[in-house]
Amino acid sequence: MAMMRLDKFLGDMGIASRSELRQLIKSGRVRVDGLPVTAPDRRVDDEKSRVVLDGRELKYKKFRYYMMDKPPGVLSVTEDSRQKTVLDLLPEELRRMGLFPVGRLDKDTSGLLLLTNDGDLAHRVISPKSGIWKLYRAKVDGELGPEDVRAFEEGLTLGDGTKCLPAKLRLLPGGSCLVKVTEGKYHQVKRMLASRGAPVLELRRLAVGGLELDEKLGPGGLKELEKEELDRLFVQDALEI
Ligand code: URA
Question: Residues lining ligand 1, judged by CB closer than 6 Å?
Fold first, then answer.
């Protein structure tokens, strides 16, 4: 339970910009516990107060968690002066919630990207100390074989001397493969595969921990995650490859 100003409550819900909120509250469209409230600084309880805007009850959520199927061609950053970002793909009310991508996918990589305003969760997912597996499917230009699978298991050393933690590689028909890594070094998967003579043509993230990409979302599609789905992020080895 936390007490907060009504304008903060509505602002955190992405209802409108700060300046628009003042006007909206003053116009009497908001009711708290059944009574109209026109003071933006009215204190409300985020759990107990019944806040209703234009007849619609608003349930307060401090943190939000979304899964996006990131399309290729957009940056996994919150803003960029020239190029389109994943935040540009969000509906306006979500753009006001302070969401940011959890880790980065390269511009040309597609697939599962988490967006949240919960810094602690983001840190737990990204930190190599958490050892959370990330699963990718790659289409490569080159032949991979059992010796490459072994090299991934042992931990690759890249051309520049960077040592990688043990990872998993599974070969698929048609020049594709699955790669599971716990780290998120710069261009990690691309560099790992290139070091084995198989440069990546296409890369798609399929899962983070035990949370799988919902393929029904389609490019740029978004869904809010429920508690059980978030918990799956921390289920290790739910996905054997
Ligand atoms: N590894 C890469 O090389 N690129 C990504 O976008 C993610 C992992």
Answer: 105-106, 109, 187-190, 203
Three-state DSSP at 204 gives strand
At CA 12, angle to CA 7 and CA 16, rounded to 5? 65
d(CA 148, CA 196): 7
- Residue 121 host element (H or E): helix 119-126
- Give the pLDDT mean for 121-150: 94
Ordered alpha helix ranges (H), 4-113: 6-12, 18-26, 92-95
Nearest Cα to Cα of residue 25 among 3, 1, 12, 42: 42
What is the distance between the alpha carbons of residues 53 and 200, in angstroms, rounded to a whole number?
Answer: 50
In tens, the pLDDT along 211-220 reads: 999 999 999 9
User: Ligand 1 centroid to 199 CA: how many Å?
Assistant: 12
Catalytic residue among 45, 88, 106, 214: 106
What DSSP character marks residue 157? B
Active site annotation includes 106: yes
Q: Give 191-202 pLDDT, tens digit per residue.
A: 999 999 999 999
- CB-based contact 6:30 (threshold 8 Å): yes
- Buried/exposed 8-29: b ≥16 CB within 10 Å, e otherwise: bbbbbbbbbeeeebeebbeeee
